[in-house]
Design a protein that fits this description.
The complex is a heterodimer of chains A (114) and B (115). Chain A has no helices and eleven strands. Chain A is mostly beta strands. In chain A, strands 2, 4, 5, 9, 10 and 11 form a six-stranded mixed beta sheet that branches. In chain A, strands 1-3-8-7-6 form a five-stranded antiparallel beta sheet, with no helix packed on it. In chain A, strand 6 and strand 7 form a beta hairpin. Chain B is an all-beta fold and 115 residues long. Chain B contains no helices and eleven strands. In chain B, the strands form two sheets. In chain B, strands 2, 4, 5, 6, 9, 10 and 11 form a seven-stranded mixed beta sheet that branches. In chain B, a hairpin with a 6-residue loop joins strand 4 and strand 5. Classes of the chains: A mainly beta (114), B mainly beta (115). Chains A and B meet through strand 4 and strand 5 of A and strand 5, strand 9 and strand 10 of B.
């Protein structure tokens, strides 16, 4: 069973609008949570990474939040641009192994229309 | 932009062929990874390495093999490709960051199609 669930599966918004993507996880013990952006045909690129003690982190127009108690995270995109069209992947790392195993969500496919 | 490279970017081959997917990074990272990703699905770890001469199998069973003779190079080999191997293969590397986390840097991927 996938321990990282993302919603919605896909989303279409108009350029300039804001949107929020959701991530729920059951990974335990928790180490950190990352959001990646993956353009079509490319590898994922890291947007933010948050540890247990952090509940918000920003990277330009991207703001991620983390509620470690409810095991939920969100990624808020402000003033969307056409270049924001991509898949956004939530990734949770556990601290139960030396590798720091990563659990990947299936991503939210965001399309920004002009 | 991460300095991690994969070749080829696209590969179409026939069943039974032997192929090697190349991955190299110039960041001096000790840890390297291979992931498999099908459209609309999550990434699955198939191989990883902690450093030179270290290789381990990941979560997803794979008929591929890897080697790590040099820090910067982590090739993946399929001895006999089959249509079930059709997928996107992503290579990544990482190094420890402040706070105990390590950010993975991904290559652009190789889209493999086996006919």
């Amino acid at each position: 069973k996938n321990q990282v669930e993302q919603s919605p599966q896909s989303l279409i918004i108009l350029e300039g609008k804001n949107c929020t993507l959701q991530c729920n996880y059951t990974v335990s013990p928790f180490s950190n949570l990352r959001w990646y952006k993956q353009d079509t045909g490319r590898g994922p690129v890291s947007l933010t990474i948050m540890t247990f003690s952090e509940n918000t982190k920003s990277n330009g127009r991207y703001t991620a939040t983390l509620d470690a108690d409810t095991k939920q995270s969100s990624l808020h995109i402000t003033a969307s641009q056409l270049s924001d069209s991509a898949s956004y992947i939530c990734v949770v790392a556990d601290r139960g192994s030396t590798l720091g195993r990563l659990y990947f969500g299936r991503g939210t496919q965001l399309t920004v229309w002009p | 932009e991460a300095d991690i490279y994969q070749t080829p970017r696209y590969l179409v081959i026939g069943t039974g062929k032997k192929i090697t997917l190349e991955c190299s990074q110039t960041m001096g990272h000790d840890k390297m990874y291979w992931y498999q990703q099908d459209p609309g699905m999550e990434l699955h770890l198939i191989h990883y390495s902690y450093g030179v001469n270290s290789t381990e199998k990941g979560d997803l069973s794979s008929e591929s093999t890897v080697s790590r003779i040099r820090t910067e190079h982590f090739p993946l080999t399929l001895e006999s490709a089959r249509p079930s191997h059709t997928s996107q293969y992503l290579c990544a590397s990482s190094a420890p960051q402040r706070g105990g986390t390590d950010t993975q840097y991904f290559g652009p991927g190789t889209r493999l199609t086996v006919l």
